[in-house]
């Protein structure tokens, strides 16, 4: 893999503008405003900021759920748009997205085995026996029992469901994960366990994480570097110790000042 897992340059996304049905001007929102940042291979880059600062829009553009208004996006050294045009298979083998609400992200009508089967069929090209073995390995990797595969999403707690969603994101053997508030819906004690699991998986499989969060305690526990967003802009970025130790920007200082702390979860 190239040195940079992800890179965006001067990325802009505006919503609205133009004329409404009734002829009035629609209010324009610049959700992402000339953002430049890079996720290096093997690191966790946290993007942090209050609600509405543009974090999710940034993540959604990277995986093609939103189209940028302007700017460049590179994924594993390739233009993101070009990579996506190669199809879901090519794209899914490079980058995966993990959602905030794990239970809602799993199809309630399918067993966990069926849920994992879909990306394995689409992305791995393995036969049935190999797929079964791979599913058992994935459950093992996320520390869930093998009988998980025959059960349904509603049978699991939020933390267990997020482990399963993480297993699904690993099925394609993509090395870049975009984690959009992956522990925000979980209790604090469960958050710590899932963060520890993410750290272990990152080391084991050589993953790179773009970790979106509004929670500085979580970010301090998991990130190598942090980018702070406010009103669509990156106001400060740097290594986690430097950013928390001596924040340069007034807004970063204010965010840190009002946040509870959490211990780091290095395995
Ligand atoms: N589809 C959309 N149409 C119009 N405005 C949007 C759309 N999506 C996001 N926005 C606006 O863009 C801005 C950034 O939103 P975004 O969801 O990216 O922020 P966020 O930091 O992820 O917040 P949250 O943590 O609440 O999700 C907000 O002002 C939001 O209202």
TrEMBL record:
Lineage: superkingdom: Bacteria
Keywords: ATP-binding, Nucleotide-binding, Transport
Family matches, as SUPFAM superfamilies: P-loop containing nucleoside triphosphate hydrolases
Pfam families per the UniProt record, alphabetical: ABC_tran
GO annotation, biological process: transmembrane transport
Listed GO MF terms: ATP binding; ATP hydrolysis activity
Domain ABC transporter: 6-256
Nucleotide-binding among keywords: yes
SMART domains: AAA (SM00382)
Coiled coil (UniProt feature): none
Homology family: Belongs to the ABC transporter superfamily.
PANTHER family: D,D-DIPEPTIDE TRANSPORT ATP-BINDING PROTEIN DDPF-RELATED (PTHR43776:SF7), TRANSPORT ATP-BINDING PROTEIN (PTHR43776)
Protein name in the entry: Putative dipeptide ABC transporter ATP-binding protein
